[in-house]
Design brief:
alpha/beta; Rossmann fold; Helicase, Ruva Protein, domain 3; 5-stranded parallel β-sheet
C-alpha cells in the first residue's frame, strides 16, 4: 500500500509550507531571535497547514541547535519529528474531539509539570481545539496562563471563535488562509513530475478548482487521479468525469447559442447535458462561472486579463472574447443574475432539469423581462445595431415584397417594349447561373452577405459563428475554404455540423456545390468587413417606432443607405 500524497509530501521545515508567508516568516523570526511564546493558536480552513506548522514549530524548538527556523535534521529530536517520522515522547498530539472532557484536561494539567524526557520542551499540540468543552477549557486555563518553563501549548482549530476568550487571550494567534490557485498549481505540477505521471492539459486547474484552496484536499484528489492513471497518464476526459465538472464543449455550445439567441440549439445542449449524465446543478454552476469569466473578459484588456484568468489557454481566451462581444455586457449580467437565482431555486423540490430549461428560456427572451436588467439588455441590443452603418441591402419585409425598390439617383433608361423586356430577362436568367458557377474569391465575398442571410433562416447558431468570426479565404473546383478567427469557434462550427448548413446556402444563393473546409486564421478582422456589418444590420428592428433617421427612411422607401454623415 502506497503512502497518501498529502502524507508523503508533508513539509518538515517552514520553507516548504506554501501560501502562508504571513505566518511562517514571523514564526521564523521569533525562533531566530529567541522570542518564542508559551502558547500559540493556529486557525484557518482545513488542509491549509495548521497541524503541519505546529509539528514544524515543535521540531524547530526541540532541535539540538535550536530554537532555530532551520532544524539541523541530524539530532535525534529532528529525526523523530521529521514528516512521517516515529514521533517524540515530548511532543504530545491530542484531538480535542476525543479528549475534550474535564477529566482529560485535568490529566493533561497534572502531567504537564513533569520534565521532558529527552528534549528541551514538552509541547502539547491540541487539534480541533474548538471542541474542548467549557469544563475542560476552564480546567486548562491556569496551566495555559502560567505554564512551567518547559511547557509550550499549540492549539489548532478551524473555528477560533468557539474557543473560550480566556484561552484565546493568552495565546499568539496566527490565522492561516487558503492557498492561491497559482501557488497550489505549481505544487501539484512538481508532485506529478516527482511521481513520474503525465497529466493532460487542463487537469491541474480542475484539481485546484475541486480542492477549493486546500492543499490536503488537492493532494488527495490528485492522488486519486494518479492511482487510476493508465500508461498514457491522466486524461482530461477522465478527470472531468471523475471530478463531476461539465465538459467544456457543452458550456461553449450553450454560450454560443445564447449569443445567437438560438433556442433550438440551446435546448438541444441541455438535452445533451442530461443524456450524458451530467448534474444539471453542476452545469448551471459551471455556466454561471463562464458568464463571470465573460464579464471579466469584457472589462479587462489583454494584459490584465492574462493575469486574472491565468489558467486559461490563449485560444480559449480568444474564444471567450468573441463570445463576450457577441452577447454584450448588459446581456451577460442579466444572464448571470438569472443563472444565480435559478441555482438557488434548484435546491428545492422542483426537478433540476425543469429549472435548467426555465433558466435558458428566461435568458433567451429579454423582451418578456420588465425588470431593469431586461430593459438594459434590450437597449444594449438596439445600441449595438445603431452604431454599425449598413453596408448591404437589407432583406425586404414580407409586407413590402411587392413594392418597388428605390435606388439612389439611377440613370434614366429608355423604356423597353414587352417583347424586348422579356427577351432581356430570359437572357439574364440564362447567364446568371453560369456567371455564379465561375465565381472567384472576390465574387464570393461580394455575395457573402446574401449567403449569411440564407444561413440565418436555416440555423441562428451557424449564422452567429459565421458573422462574428468568419471570412472566405479561397475557392476551387471542389472546396470553399472558410477562415475562422480562433480554434474554439472552428471546433464549434464543425461540432454543430454547420458546414452542411453553409453548403446548402451556397447552393441556393450562389449556385455552387462545394465541400466546406474550415481553417483557423487569427489575422481576420471581421469587425471591419462589409459582410459583418451587413449581417449585424439585419438585426435592426423592423418596427417603425423603433427606427430613426436614415434607417426609418430606408424602411419606408425600400432604399439602400449608401453612407451617413455626422453633424458633430
Amino acid at each position: 500500500m502506497s503512502l497518501a500524497l498529502y502524507r508523503k509530501y508533508r513539509p518538515s521545515v517552514f520553507a516548504d509550507v506554501i501560501g502562508q508567508d504571513h505566518v511562517t516568516i514571523p514564526l521564523s523570526n521569533a525562533l531566530q531571535s529567541g522570542k518564542t511564546h508559551h502558547a500559540y493558536l493556529f486557525s484557518g480552513p482545513r488542509g491549509c497547514g495548521k497541524t503541519s506548522s505546529a509539528r514544524i514549530m515543535a521540531r524547530s524548538l526541540n532541535c539540538a541547535k535550536g530554537p532555530t527556523p532551520t532544524p539541523c535534521g541530524e539530532c535525534q529530536s529532528c529525526k523523530d519529528l521529521v514528516a512521517n517520522g516515529p514521533g517524540s515522547l515530548d511532543v504530545i498530539e491530542l484531538d480535542a474531539a476525543t479528549h475534550g472532557l474535564v477529566d482529560d484536561a485535568r490529566d493533561l494539567r497534572d502531567k504537564a509539570f513533569f520534565a521532558p524526557v529527552q528534549s528541551k520542551y514538552k509541547i502539547y499540540i491540541i487539534d480541533e481545539a474548538h471542541q474542548l468543552g467549557p469544563g475542560a477549557a476552564n480546567a486548562l486555563l491556569k496551566v495555559v496562563e502560567e505554564p512551567p518553563p518547559h511547557v509550550i501549548f499549540i492549539f489548532a482549530t478551524t473555528e477560533p471563535e468557539k474557543l473560550i476568550a480566556t484561552i484565546r487571550s493568552r495565546t499568539h494567534h496566527y490565522p492561516f488562509r487558503l492557498v492561491p490557485p497559482g501557488i497550489l498549481g505549481e505544487l501539484l505540477e512538481k508532485v506529478c513530475a516527482s511521481e513520474g505521471v503525465k497529466v493532460a492539459k487542463g487537469v491541474i486547474p480542475q484539481v485546484v478548482r475541486a480542492s477549493g484552496g486546500s492543499v490536503r484536499d488537492a493532494l488527495s484528489v490528485l492522488g486519486q487521479l494518479l492511482a487510476g492513471a493508465d500508461k498514457d497518464g491522466v486524461s482530461y476526459e477522465i478527470a472531468t468525469q471523475l471530478l463531476g465538472f461539465t465538459d467544456g464543449a457543452l458550456i461553449d455550445d450553450a454560450v454560443d447559442a445564447i449569443a445567437a439567441r438560438d433556442g433550438a440549439t440551446l435546448f438541444q445542449t441541455v438535452d445533451r447535458v442530461i443524456e450524458s449524465g451530467h448534474d444539471p446543478r453542476r452545469f448551471t454552476q459551471d455556466l454561471l462561472e463562464r458568464l463571470r469569466d465573460l464579464m471579466i473578459v469584457d472589462a479587462l484588456d489583454a494584459t490584465n486579463l492574462k493575469s486574472v484568468l491565468r489558467d486559461l489557454p490563449d485560444d480559449q481566451l480568444a474564444r471567450m472574447r468573441a463570445q463576450a462581444k457577441n452577447i454584450g455586457q448588459a446581456s451577460i449580467s442579466r444572464a448571470a443574475d438569472i443563472a444565480a437565482e435559478g441555482l438557488t431555486q434548484m435546491r428545492g423540490a422542483t426537478p433540476p432539469r425543469l429549472m435548467l430549461e426555465l433558466i435558458c428560456g428566461r435568458i433567451l427572451i429579454p423582451m418578456g423581462d420588465d425588470s431593469a436588467a431586461g430593459l438594459a439588455a434590450r437597449i444594449e441590443r438596439l445600441e449595438r445595431v445603431e452604431n454599425i452603418a449598413p453596408a448591404a441591402p437589407r432583406a425586404v419585409a414580407p409586407a413590402q415584397s411587392n413594392a418597388k425598390q428605390v435606388t439612389s439617383t439611377p440613370p434614366a433608361k429608355p423604356k423597353e417594349d414587352d417583347g424586348t423586356k422579356a427577351a432581356s430577362e430570359a437572357s439574364s436568367s440564362t447567364s446568371k447561373p453560369a456567371e455564379r458557377h465561375a465565381m472567384d474569391v472576390a465574387g464570393l465575398r461580394r455575395l457573402w452577405p446574401e449567403v449569411i442571410e440564407n444561413v440565418k433562416k436555416r440555423r441562428r447558431l451557424t449564422w452567429s459563428l459565421l458573422s462574428a468570426s468568419a471570412q472566405i479565404l479561397g475557392v476551387d473546383e471542389k472546396i470553399i475554404t472558410i477562415g475562422i478567427v480562433n480554434a474554439g469557434a472552428r471546433d464549434s462550427f464543425i461540432r454543430s455540423e454547420s458546414d452542411e448548413i453553409l453548403r446548402q446556402a451556397f447552393i441556393e444563393v450562389v449556385g455552387l456545390d462545394r465541400k466546406i473546409e474550415c481553417t483557423v486564421d487569427p489575422s481576420i478582422d471581421t469587425n471591419s468587413t462589409p459582410e459583418a456589418r451587413a449581417v449585424r444590420t439585419s438585426e435592426s428592428p423592423t418596427d417603425p417606432n423603433q427606427l430613426s433617421g436614415a434607417a426609418l427612411l430606408a424602411a419606408e422607401l425600400g432604399a439602400t443607405v449608401i453612407s451617413e454623415t455626422s453633424n458633430e
